[in-house]
């Protein structure tokens, strides 16, 4: 009965309260993490490089970097940062001590989009309900004078059941078919100069096309996050998506250069209760195809 009453209160609450409730299930504060460091089922993942980890990390944290949780590059011209095969990801997570009962906290050291990429990967693996992002990352933890460690913890391999991915990743054909379909909004998570076509991504040897996918709206990851590795305030996140034409009930399909920055935009969308999909190949893949591209600033 109490659970039913709680559900009714949530359903009858204003939209802003609903967004706050969703957001609280996706992030944790440094205070919360400090209180739960000794929890037996807690797995903390620091996303970054080895040097930053060895300089001092949250006690008990395990180091992970994006190549650890991505498909190995194969073939003459592989895409960067693609989702790995489920069995490969499962083996990596088991080695990190992730089990079916684990609660996982992910935090960044330098850029929030690396941490949100890991969160997205865990969500696709079916672990999203038990995965949280630490607001402010390692910077906030240290700024508050909380304890750090230079010791690498001894990790007991986890016991994680085999899984198949949730259908959260789409390809170029899906994006082309849904770019202007009601109920779907394709968003470009790159910074505005790339969306407008003033700059092209990629490398000198393999430059991307200039501009954005035809019909895509601009929701740069930097507008829904802050420089101190937090989500932007809830009302700002909601206003940004609304300005891009995203309505309640829509599915947000995001892309960026290679599928990293887009994960931050999608994480922000999730805090609004929106359904999300990632074009993992992103503009790196789109640039190799004959898909339509537009240039120019976002239109109101």
Can you walk me through this structure?
- There is one protein chain.
- The protein folds into two domains: 2-143, Oxidized Rhodanese, domain 1 (3-Layer(aba) Sandwich), CATH 3.40.250; 169-294, 3-Layer(aba) Sandwich (Oxidized Rhodanese, domain 1).
- The strands form three sheets. It has a five-stranded parallel beta sheet with strand order 1-5-4-2-3.
- The protein has 300 residues and is α/β, with parallel strands linked by helices.
- It is built from 13 helices and twelve strands.
- The model is unreliable at 1-18 (pLDDT under 50).
- α6 (112-127) packs across α12.
- The longest helix is centred in the middle third of the chain and has 16 residues, at 112-127.
Compose a concise summary of this entry.
The protein has helices at 2-11, 15-24, 30-35, 50-55, 86-95, 112-127, 137-143, 172-178, 192-196, 221-224, 234-243, 261-271, 282-286; strands spanning 27-28, 42-47, 62-64, 103-108, 131-134, 169-170, 184-188, 212-213, 217-218, 251-255, 275-279, 293-294. With 300 residues, it is of the alpha/beta class.
Characteristics:
300 residues, alpha/beta, Oxidized Rhodanese, domain 1, 5-stranded parallel sheet, 13 helices, 36% helix, 15% strand, disordered N terminus
| CATH class type of the largest domain | Alpha Beta
Mean pLDDT reading: 92
Calculate Rg over CA atoms: 19 Å
Number of strands: 12
Poorly predicted spans:
1-18
> CATH homologous superfamily of the largest domain - what is it?
Rhodanese-like domain
Count structural domains: 2
Q: What overall geometry do the principal axes of the alpha carbons give? A: globular
